[in-house]
Structure formats: C-alpha cells, structure tokens
Specification:
Shape: globular
Helix content: 40-55%
Distance between the termini: 61 Å
Number of helices: 15
Number of domains: 3
Largest sheet: 5 strands, mixed
CATH topology of the largest domain: MutS, DNA mismatch repair protein, domain I
Structural class: alpha+beta
CATH class of the largest domain: Alpha Beta
Strand order of the largest sheet: 5-6-1-7-8
Order of helices and strands: EHEEHHEHEEHHEHEHHHHHEHEEHEH
CATH architecture of the largest domain: 3-Layer(aba) Sandwich
Radius of gyration: 24 Å
Number of strands: 12
Length: about 400
C-alpha cells in the first residue's frame, strides 16, 4: 500500500464575482453576473451566490441569465485583475507546500504530507490557508476539502461551498459511508448523458454502485468506464499531485451580438483578444511559438489559420501584429459570427535564435518590460483605468494596424 497522503483541494468561492463585489462595495449582497452582457450572444463566466439563488450558473447564455435574474448586475470579465489576485492566492498556497497543482486561476490541489511537522495536521493546515486567503485578499473566501487522495479532496471541497471546510474520514468503512448517499453525478467522468443512463438502470447514488458488481455495470457502460466508476465509488484514486502541469495553449474568443459585416470592428475586437491572450501568457511565465486565428461565419462555417512568431514572444505588440496579419490574409466574404485568437507551442524561454528579419532583442525585451508594467498597473487599478491608445503599436515605431 502507498504511504498515507494528505491532499487538499482549495477552490475560491465564486472567484470572479467575489473579486467584483470586494472591489465594488455597493454590489455586496447583490446578484453579480460576470460574462457577456444580457443583450448579447455569450455566456456567464461565473456569478455570485446571490445570483445562483435564481438558477443562474456558469456557461448559461447571458440572455437566459437575464430572464431568470433581471435585477442582476452584469459585469464584463477583467482577467488582468483576476489574474493578479490568483497569483496572490497561489503564493499563499506555496508558503505551506511546494507541491501545488493549479487546476485553473482559482483552484488547486496541494500535497501537504510533508508539511505536518511545520504547520500541524491537514485540517489545521487547511484552516490556516483559509484564514490567510481571507486576510490577505481583503475578504475573499475559499472552500477546502481534506482527504487522502485527489478525488475525495475535490469532492469534499465542493460539498459545503461557500467558505466551507470538509474533512473526509480515513477509515475505509467510514469513507464508504461518507460516499454512499451522494448522487452518482458527483463522480468524475459522470456527465449528464452518462448520469441519465445509469439512473435508467437504477443507479442513483454512489452507494448503488458500491452494491453492484463490475460485470453487471460493464454490460451497460463498458468495462473501462465501469472499472473507473467502481474505483471512485470505493474512494480509490492513486494519482499524485503534479507540480509540472503545463498549459498547452491560451486562447480567447468573441461572439458578436449580431453577425458583423464591419471589417474594422472585427479588427478592433481581434486586437483586444490578442492583448488579453498576451496578458495571460505573461502571467503564466511562458512564451508562445505559434499564433492561431479563428473565424466563424454567419453560416457557422469555421476556419483557422496559424503561423509561427519566428522567435517565441509574449508581448502585446508581437501577438497583435501576427493576429492582424492572419486576418488581413483572409477576405471577409461573409458576416462574422465569431472571432478568436490563441497561441500554442508554449515554452518557459525563447528557444529559437532570432533571424536577421526579426525584431532585435533589445527592442523585444523593451516591449515585454512595458507590457509587464502595464499588467501590474491594471492589476492594481483595474483594466478600465489603464488602456492603450488605438493609434499606438509599440514605443518609437509606427502603428502596425
């Protein structure tokens, strides 16, 4: 048997909406909905718990969210500000253990097995983390699950949100008792379709799976899925906390409220998307080697075009320039429903040698320093307070657009 581990799952509560309520005191206690505006095509990114009372949830079309909660305060995402708070939270987690596996900007696994001598047992560490987050982020809360493996910790962290702390017992019989009454939809890998199929055959709770056998379950969903679900139903998960998980790509998309025939409007939106991707790229500490444009016409036909940066880049100017060059190579023969830009081939450093035709390194470094300074200002003041004039492309050069 592997040695007993102490795993925490830390999840910020309604993160984007909570940051907005913290920074706008008048919105506290009110339904805040972060995402597309209510009169536009697009979805909810996240919402406050006051909005969830009305049935609003992430990924819901914003128009439906408005129908359910017309009094909601709709706010566009401010990724630079959320990213700054995320880095603050992750820094707090890393004070307790180097074994931190971020899952997103607001969620992470921690292995605190080796931290018990310094900070106490796992529940005590979880309590200290929650207190530090609330104090140092000026009121934001996190829910934490404590268990012997990642599956149980994640499940526990989701059970008593917001501002919850849930500890899963370690005794096997108690683990089975803890899991038995929970709906099967709590198991990883059980989506809406699989959940409906299992319910049709009488499997409604995790306890129902604990009382079946693999051949009977495999006849319904196949041997691989049956084995996976039964292991989870008995609380088994041997995955380790991975500290070297790497984001493979970063992208942003925009769906126009009405199919767009204005080429200049498409260009403007694309520039904003490229800027946001660049900001997220710098926040991850990476350089991109490849840029990709995505266009979806009013007919729903979708095309993608991609090209190398030549030398890996992370500054706004390089990403903007490539995005616009890809767009200009595609005649807008139809109204545009969606435009997107993303980067791949990510690395922690520039691996390629600059060619004669690339920007000289001093200029590229200067551009990056400028962009990182702007990131810090936006994180402090808000993205709406620090904007680039549309005519500016880079210091000391003419606009590329």
């Amino acid at each position: 048997m592997p040695p007993e581990r102490d795993i925490l799952h830390v999840d910020m509560d309604a993160f984007f909406a909570a940051v907005e309520q913290r920074d706008h005191p008048a919105w506290r206690g009110l339904p805040v909905i972060v995402g597309a505006p209510p009169d536009a095509r697009g979805v909810v990114s996240t919402c406050s718990y006051e909005a969830r009372v009305f049935g609003v949830h992430s990924a819901m079309p914003s128009r439906e969210a408005f129908q359910r909660c017309p009094q909601g305060i709709f706010v566009p995402p401010d990724m630079a500000r959320y990213g700054a708070v995320s880095r603050q939270v992750m820094a707090i987690l890393e004070r307790f253990t180097p074994l931190v596996e971020p899952l997103s900007v607001d969620e992470a696994f921690l292995d605190v097995t080796g931290s018990r001598g310094l900070f106490g047992d796992a529940p005590a560490i979880a309590a200290q983390i929650r207190a530090a987050i609330q104090a140092e982020t000026h009121g934001l809360t996190a829910s934490v699950g404590v268990a012997g493996n990642k599956f149980l910790a994640k499940l526990a962290g989701d059970l008593h949100k917001p501002d919850g702390l849930t500890v899963v017992p370690r005794d096997r019989a108690q683990i089975l008792t803890f899991l038995a009454p929970l709906p099967i939809g709590r198991l990883w890998g059980v989506g809406r379709a699989l959940c409906a199929l299992l319910q049709q055959h009488g499997y409604r709770t995790i306890g129902d799976l604990q009382h079946t056998d693999e051949p009977a379950l495999a006849a319904i969903i196949g041997h691989h899925t049956a084995g996976h679900l039964l292991r989870l139903a008995f609380g088994e998960d041997d995955r380790i906390v991975e500290t070297d998980r790497e984001e493979k790509s970063i992208s942003r998309e925009h769906t126009f409220p009405v199919d767009c025939r204005d080429a200049e409007r498409v260009r403007t939106v694309l520039k904003d998307l490229a800027d946001d991707v660049a900001c997220r790229l710098r926040a991850s500490g990476k350089f991109a080697g490849l840029g990709k444009l995505k266009l979806r016409w009013s007919s729903f036909q979708t095309l993608t075009r991609q090209r190398s940066f030549g030398a890996p880049a992370c500054d706004d100017f390089s990403l903007r320039r490539l995005a616009l060059e890809l767009l200009e190579a595609e005649p807008l023969t139809q109204p545009v429903r969606l435009v997107g830009f993303g980067v791949t081939d990510l690395s922690a450093e520039r691996r390629q040698q600059l060619t004669l035709f690339d920007d000289p390194l001093p200029r590229r470094d200067r551009d990056e320093r400028l962009c990182r300074t702007v990131d810090r200002l936006r994180g402090t003041l808000g993205s709406d307070r620090v904007v680039r004039a549309s005519s500016v492309d880079a210091p000391g050069r003419k606009s590329a657009d």
